[in-house]
From TrEMBL:
This is [histone H3]-trimethyl-L-lysine(4) demethylase. Residues 191-201 have a biased composition (Polar residues). Belongs to the JARID1 histone demethylase family. Pfam families: ARID, JmjC, JmjN, KDM5_C-hel, PHD, PLU-1, zf-C5HC2. Its main location: nucleus. GO terms for cellular component: chromatin; nucleoplasm. Keywords: Chromatin regulator, Dioxygenase, Iron, Metal-binding, Nucleus, Oxidoreductase, Repeat, Zinc, Zinc-finger. The gene is kdm5c. It comes from Scleropages formosus (Asian bonytongue).
Amino acid sequence: DEFVPPPECPVFEPSWEEFADPLGYIAKIRPIAEKSGICKIRPPADWQPPFAVEVDNFRFTPRIQRLNELEAETRVKLNYLDRIAKFWEIQGSSLKIPNIERRIVDLFSLAKVVSEEGGFETVCKERRWARVAQKLGYPPGKNIGSLLRSHYERIVYPFEMFQSGTSLPYKPRPYDSEEVDKEYKPHSIPLRQSVQPSKMSSYGRRANRLQPDPEPTEEDIEKNPELKKLQIYGAGPKMMGLGLVARDKGVKKKDSITKEEDFDEEDSDGIGKNEPCTKMTMRLRRYPSNMQFVDSFVCRMCGRGDEDEKLLLCDGCDDNYHTFCLLPPLTDPPKGDWRCPKSVFIQMECKRPAEAFGFEQATREYTLQSFGEMADTFKADYFNMPVHMVPTELVEREFWRLVSSIEEDVTVEYGADIHSKEFGSGFPMNDGKKQLTPEEEEYARSGWNLNVMPVLEQSVLCHINGDISGMKVPWLYVGMVFSTFCWHIEDHWSYSINYLHWGEPKTWYGVPSSAAEHLEEVMKKLTPELFESQPDLLHQLVTIMNPNILMAHGVPVVRTNQCAGEFVITFPRAYHSGFNQGYNFAEAVNFCTADWLPVGRSCIEHYRRLRRYCVFSHEELTCKMAACPEKLDLNLAAATHREMFSIVQEERKLRKGLLERGITEAEREAFELLPDDERQCDKCKTTCFLSALACTNCTERLVCLYHTQDLCACPTEKHYLRYRYTLDELLAMLHRLKVRAESFDSWANRVKEALEQEEGTKIGIQELEALKEEATERKFPNNELLQRLNGVLSDIEHCQTTSKELLANSQSRRMTLVELKDLVERMQNLPCVLSQLADVQAVLDTVEKFQAKAEALLGSGQDSQGSPPPEQLQALLEEGAALAAEASALDLLRGLQEQGRWLSEVRRTLGPRGGDSSVTLGVLRGLMEAGCSVPQSAAVETAMAELQELLTIAERWEEKAQICLEHRQKHPLSTLEAIVTEAQLIPVQLPNILSLQSCLGRARAWVTDLEEIQNGEHYPCLDDLEGLVAVGRDLPVLMEELRQLELQVASAHSWREKASKTFLKKNSPYSLLEVLCPCVEMCRGAGKGVKTDTDSLGLSAQDLRDPGAIVSAFKEGERREKEAARRLQKLNLAKPGLDTCKEERRRAGDVEQDVSMSSKNREGASEPSSVTPYLDNGASVCVCGRPPLTPLLRCHLCKDWFHGGCVPFPSLLPPGQTVSEGTLCWWDWDTHFLCPLCQRSRRPRLETILALLVALQRLPVRLPEGEALQCLTERAIGWQGRAKEALESPELKGALETLQIL
């Protein structure tokens, strides 16, 4: 099932004031937080201690954690599988776990369910295998019950029979698993967890504690073959420093007896011999003279001694068994040592480790950087995404899935319990090793510094001498994803605090102390196999259980994610566990407050029952605090007195029991000077301090007074009491504690009497201050009574200061009547008399009289349904302003005054003279807003209604005008005039109406201009119409004339575009008018080769509107064009060097080209062409203005030369004819070349131009281009007429006839 997160634990965010007292704040939140067992504290945002660890020098060796070995139920299953695997391995087979429905069979659950159903025989007899399959979670049908029976009978049943010591009722089939089954690799969890901590460490939590038996050496393992076998099988090292290899000892057969020399038992494995040695050989050599041993070699199962080749000798008990008599039978004799089922059972029960200390250490040492790189790589690879993008919920679900999986073995490493005294704390410390900055000094002194919190004045642990690592000295924790801390409670059930310095979150689970025993019961109930061999399993920090399982059995569990910079507090006897979400660094320590003392005593009693070692002596700690009561905090002194009283009473009862037994000898002993292991009870391991029972004969033994019967068997006369204090000394210590605790009671009674004084018996201020000074000197706790005393003194100081300011009229803000009454009442309720009380009372009486007068005036105004006269209001206001305090009626008077002023302003605005231009919408809205703040009355409501009505009407007309101005839908001129006329009746200045009125004036002027243009002598010009269209489009008025004008302008533009396409070349730099007009000036530009012409016939914009002026200008331009052309031709023909090549040019047909020049450089030709002569370098030709270079082309019109690479090469074919139509003779070539400066446009046919003129005549618009086209057409027609006359002359006709004859 998918993991369901438990509810969140309480989270607290203290203020800076609360954060200043750590233990006080923890005591404040304890009633809420201890109900959950754990809580989280977020410090103020600015509290960020610097990380003080020297990262470069920090090196540590982490622990190895295999996740599925941590969970209790999973570990039970793995241990069970280990035992089955061990059983089959000794029998010569390996365990392979079968699969059903794509998941491996849970053999432990299968065996458990079969046992619950009555056993294998019962289940088979009553055919309950289908029910077994259903209980294991398999779907019904599919014959799964038969498969489970087969696997149980084949794998589990022989092992169960072996454990019970009975024989199978039939001969079982050999264990031969399928190939698809997964081979099981034993974990050997108990043996691996028996690895002890390093003996070199000097920071153990208990000093000189009794150590368990040392771990086996290699010599011990050589002498114990079964221990060696446990070293060989299973994944990973099972014991530190051992890496042994199994030795093949050959087959043990009875017929392999040989006669050899005697040798020691250690060399009996035959290494270096030519023939293997069997156990039978060893038996003969061990007893060479006793032949009865040979005759007694018979099978323990069948009692026969035949078939010697199949008779095996057990290495454990020396009994003999036939291979076919074993359960199950062996097909082949096993190699190496072999033990019979009886010996295997004894060994499996006896060799189990007595105590598990924790996880084995890794073999690699890390730095913080190398461990972080390993941790981040592992997490990124496991989840296949960047580490910071993995959700915490996903990690949590995956963690609980892994710990419950038998088949997935995921191993992580955890740098846990690293001693900060050796490696350095993450918090700054004032240890003199490093110079601290002022900021570091502040954090080094902070009570939230984990090095400081255990030794605070209110902490119990500050009275313990020496450093207890992990309790008084913090431990460091470097985690990676999935690294785990298992279910546990703190030593001595103390508090703990954990701070996450940096890194990814740490997930916590907590159980309150009220449910601690319930949790233990649930875990023992669900996994009794673990607690049978290890009753204190939960104290070893190696076992977890899924919170969902605990919650299902009624255990309340909470969770939280501890982020960097946050604290987690665990309360006494609160079980907690968790895991890390990724790479992080945390620090933790224990602390104990006064409320912990009775809990600590209960913990010692619990340890006594479990025979668990103590970290320190609870009695010693209590007595040490009782010895110096004056140094104790009062709360701690009171708690110590109660604790000491219980201890003394119990000690008195125990010593009385010794006297009744007749033990009268006693000896004082300074137990605190003895090492812990020399003063521990031999029975319960409790550290003795107040007393212990010893024996003069058995000097090595010592017991506490709870186990006097378990000391020794010596006579009672030999026993004597070793004590630290006599009962009288203990009573004296108790009395001193009582005096210290009761000193507060005496002071408290005097404070109560002083604070409860009535009128006439009040004391002086000096007596109250003396009580406060006494509390400070004696360090009384800041309890409710002291807080009350401080509050009274603060009230006295406040009343004195306020009274002086009131009487001196030096207040920054005038006191109200309510505040003045409260001040007088507080002064009267004080337990002492203040001298200013009478004067303050007089001020109060004066203010109350003014209040009564003002209320009377206000009441009379309401009765008369009108406002009081302004003169009376002003007089009262002036009187109230002179008072020392502010009467509440002053606000009402000011409100009435403001109301009168507002009504006057409204009347002036709405009056007959209010409709001038000064009344705007802003004025009306301002009056409305001001009316809401004045006191309400009938007159105000009436005026507000009138203002609202006028404002609503004005805004409605403004909205209408705005709609008309937005051009969304234009309205006729008459409609807009009606709107403006009606809106002018409103006595408010409306901006949109004014804008609409202005638009109407411009529309009327537009219509007048249009009529003037249309009624003129000639058609209107296009420019005039375009200007009218632009103006008309901007007006929010619907005008029919505008649509007509737009159509006319569009037609004119269409005609101009058609004419432009007819005349203009593609990407032509000339406009249509420039092309149609004569080119008046024909000359070469200076250095640019660009010819210029007039823009618009040399006329102004006004002259262009006169057709006659245009025709005259065109005629004049035509004349000037001819003259300019002649001058240009004459200039170009007169260029030096050109006359010498006329004949050659004439013979070449006026085409200057040479095919052979295609392979020459056009810019650097040095030899003249055979067709084109070399020209003088002094002349400049072409559009580029450079000297002439072949090949050259001559313009037919301007007679100028052009480079062949600068101008387009002329086509030799007539227009419209292609080369494919036939080759022409040279005399049919079109050899006339026009340069780009002479041919500025296309040369359309005359018929095309006449069609344009016909379309022009239909336009009601005049265009300058149209006038120019008409003139150009007339010029072309005139030339055509003259050409016809020339062709019809007699001379030309005769010449043509002569040519035809030729």
